[in-house]
Automatic annotation (TrEMBL):
Residue stretches of each PPR repeat: 133-167, 272-306, 307-341
InterPro entries noted in UniProt: PPR_rpt, Smr_dom, Smr_dom_sf, TPR-like_helical_dom_sf
Species for this entry: Noctiluca scintillans
Protein name in the entry: Smr domain-containing protein
Superkingdom classification of source: Eukaryota
Domain Smr, first and last residues per copy: 382-464
Keywords: Repeat
């Protein structure tokens, strides 16, 4: 029996409480089992869930196995998990208990985002003398993985093995995906190896999940090995698999490998926006701005329009070459491209314009659009967590002007803090290491003294020391 921590009620008591809340009013029922099954199916497909349940409970043909199958199939498809549980055969119902009926009820729970209830139903199968099959576990493992409960998914896999059930292709896909979502790249590769050694026919999706898990750990060489293994088994990698591998190279800042994999894609597959964005990102991280610009041009010539991500990457590439005029032109071209600029895009723009006359006006435009909502936690604290170095300098200029007016109006001493963070929430290529030095140089150029601060993620200023006359 699979136990779940935090479950205060068994599936039996849950089923009992739901049965107690059923509609008791009488309805005109269909006399025969097959007719009732078809009637319930039609009602459920038209989303008349309550009428379907009333028809089911008011009928004299409730003991017909086909009626339960029809009702549960439809309810599972509609994710009506409560009604599916209510329709399960109970002690008072002589209808045959089947594995399929429980699987359908669990499927309804999974589709209704009630994976805990599905687990409880799986654990309850033994109490009603119904044996789970491989499909039973295939129903409950995926929602556990999607909810980042990879440990429960692995426990279910082990429980399935103890019952001598043989996993199928869907089982392997589900458990590898669960490990991927749980950042368990080593386990993903272990299960992938088990699948390759078994008699189960391999699936491209399993390799894509394993490669994605490698990407999260920057294990780009292992991702390439997975791609090579996939090709050697006469399986054709699809765009999803290639994108996952290129994304792994991007995370590991291996731009040459990313370009090589992209070039190896067959013409029949077709590259998409994600393919180009991952390759561009890898090039930008390596300051290969010309290659990034070339990739963007190739993408648009192939008929794929630039989106927010690829346009931001293009701006960063142009900024690396200090082509600020091209960056501004691209910003003004966003309405024609049907792209709405966000804070990240303005970060790219302000990084190349903060020393130019256009910089302050562009920063005020971003503020008017509320693109930096967390900038002012309170008036005396400026939070720069989501700002680039250029945007941060412009923000500090604006903020000091506001604080100076506040101080001169009251002459009350107070201290101000600039929250830069310690760089833990930013990656190196996002210029986290450059933020604090850039601000310190800015203050040094203006002869603005900083007061000692024990917090390494903050810079502190004294208003009285700064603006006393």
């Amino acid at each position: 029996m699979v136990m779940i921590s935090g479950m205060s009620r068994s599936s039996s008591s849950l089923r009992l409480s739901l049965c107690c809340s059923r509609h008791t009013q009488s309805t005109r029922s269909v006399s025969t089992g097959p007719q009732l099954g078809r009637a319930i199916t039609l009602l459920v497909r038209s989303k008349q869930w309550q009428k379907a349940l009333c028809q089911f409970h008011a009928s004299s043909s409730q003991t017909h196995t086909g009626v339960h199958a029809s009702a549960l199939h439809a309810l599972a498809h509609g994710a009506q998990w409560q009604m599916a549980i209510a329709c399960l055969p109970g002690v008072s119902k002589p209808v045959e208990q089947t594995t399929m009926s429980h699987n359908l009820a669990m499927n309804a729970c999974a589709r209704g985002f009630r994976w805990q209830v599905a687990l409880a139903l799986l654990a309850d199968m033994s109490t009603v003398l119904v044996q789970p099959d491989t499909a039973s576990y295939n129903v409950v493992i995926p929602p556990c993985g999607k909810s980042s409960n990879w440990t429960i998914a692995v426990n279910l896999w082990e429980a399935m093995g103890k019952t001598c059930l043989q996993p199928d292709r869907f089982s392997y896909n589900s458990i590898i995906s669960a490990c991927d979502r749980g950042w368990q790249w080593e386990r993903s590769l272990i299960f992938l190896g088990m699948m390759e050694k078994s008699k189960v026919k391999e699936c491209e999706r399993s390799y894509a999940s394993a490669i994605s898990a490698c990407a999260k750990a920057a294990q780009w060489r292992l991702a390439l090995a997975c791609l090579s293994s996939l090709s050697s088994r006469s399986l054709q990698p699809d765009t999803v698999v290639y994108n996952a591998t290129i994304g792994t190279c991007d995370e590991a800042e291996q731009w040459q490998a990313a370009i090589a994999i992209m070039d190896s894609m067959s013409l029949s597959l077709g590259k998409d926006g994600h393919t180009y964005s991952s390759a561009m990102s890898a090039c930008v991280k390596a300051a290969e701005w010309e290659r990034a610009v070339s990739l963007f041009d190739t993408m648009e010539r192939s008929g794929i329009e630039g989106n927010l991500v690829t346009c931001c990457l293009l701006m960063r590439a142009l900024g690396q070459a200090n082509l600020w005029e091209d960056v501004l032109f691209l910003l003004h071209d966003m309405p024609a491209r049907r792209v709405t600029p966000n804070g990240s895009m303005y970060n790219e723009v302000l990084d190349v314009t903060y020393r130019r006359p256009e910089g302050p006006a562009l920063f005020h435009c971003a503020m008017q659009k509320s693109l930096y909502p967390g900038l002012l936690a309170d008036p005396r604290h400026l939070d720069l967590h989501f700002l680039s170095p250029g945007a941060s300098i412009l923000a500090v200029r604006w903020w000091l002007t506001e604080m100076r007016q506040r101080y001169l109006s009251t002459r009350t001493p107070f201290r101000m803090q600039i929250i830069t963070g310690k760089g833990l929430s930013r990656k190196e290529w996002e210029q986290a290491a450059a933020l604090r030095p850039a601000l310190k140089n800015f203050f040094a150029e203006l002869n603005i003294p900083l007061t000692p601060c024990k917090n390494e993620g903050r810079l502190e200023l004294d208003a009285q020391q700064l603006w006393q006359e």
